Amino acid sequence: MRASPRRLRQVVVTAAIRCAATGSLLGGLLAACTTPAPPPAAALLRDEFFAVPAVGIDAARIFEMSAAMRRYADAQLLDVARAGPDRRRALVDAFVQPGGGLRLGYDSSFTRTAAETYAQRAGNCLSLVILAASFARYLGLPVQFQSVLVDEAYARSGDLFVAAGHVNLVLGSRSERRQTQDANGLTIDFVPPAPNERRRNVPIDEHRIAAMFMNNRAAEALEAGRLDDSYAWARAALRADARFAAGINTLAVVYQRAGHPAAAERAFEAALDLERDNASALANLAALLRAQGRAREAAPLEARLAALQPVPPLWYLERGREALGRGEFAQARDLLQRELQRQPFQHEAHFLLARAHAALGERAAAERHLALAAAYGPTLGLQALYAGKLQRLRAQGAH
């Protein structure tokens, strides 16, 4: 049950999909006095392996407001904020209230800056948090970024398995000068908790947010096969926050994909020095060692990984997909339901489960899960695809 299912090949911990950061972040923040100092960034970087990237990287642009954003804030937010007893409500209403002025959508196809997110009126959670922070600062409100300690969400992108965590934003009161959490803080969170989900929040700084943004861009370039660009973004993430283990893991994957296993091994080990239980780095390093015939060195890493993840990521989804392919629809339904117990927002599991229900003649359940797939689709294109399938299924039922 364990050998073939763990077909991870590569795991990139990225800030995309739900939002950002990793569950093991807590140890790096709260136990900094006991964790090893991160290696100097220069010790892990190998610029000579890569060409000059086609992309320009400027951290200042991440939060930079466009002229259109300033016009919107002046016309729609400032007067409302000044008139009310709590100027934060104007921003919260614009972002999260039904019919709010910004009318934002969710789209994780690309991690956008604040200005890009405003222009598209859509972004992943990290982009939406960055946009909210930019507007808040324009209104003179202190902000506190938070890493939300939830189970990582997994999705596939080709032969990459992508893991994601979550971040949100707390708006402090205008009179509060310190950038810390306060009892009266208003939280803006773009991914509501699942039923019975318990969450813990850990404050993080803007350097970590910038590193998450750059790590996302690195992962997106990696998925597109643009290794030079991916390295440039991963390099920038390391420069922004040398303690961000997820970013170092991405850098290692870039090295591995570019055919530099020694550099990849060193970077994976550096990520594990910062977060001993970083599942992505463990899986990647173990796979790298096994591919080199170093099974004895890989074995203890695999044992640690098995203790952390007794059931590998997306295991039930993959087994459900296989059962669908064999025409074993009841088994597929049961397996995919188990995947959704682990990941209630996993759009592909909802879609495949809808197919299983439809094949079993369970039309109402099929429609319900297609609707959920459309709601949780990570890109506008997938949302439209699932919505179209749902419309066709309903049309068939009307005849």
Description:
- By secondary structure, this protein is an alpha/beta fold.
- Among the domains are: 59-208, C8orf32 fold; 315-398, Tetratricopeptide repeat domain (Serine Threonine Protein Phosphatase 5, Tetratricopeptide repeat).
- Helix content is 54%, strand content 11%.
- It contains 17 helices and seven strands.
- It has helices at residues 25-30, 41-44, 67-83, 88-96, 114-120, 125-138, 206-223, 227-240, 245-257, 261-274, 279-291, 295-308, 315-325, 329-342, 347-359, 363-376, 380-398; strands at 10-13, 105-106, 122-123, 143-157, 160-171, 186-188, 200-204.
- The strands form two sheets. Strands 1, 4, 5, 6 and 7 form a five-stranded mixed sheet that branches. Strands 2-3 form a two-stranded parallel sheet.
- Strand 2 (105-106), helix 5 (114-120) and strand 3 form a beta-alpha-beta unit.
- Helix 3 packs across helix 4 (88-96).
- It is globular and about 65 Å long.
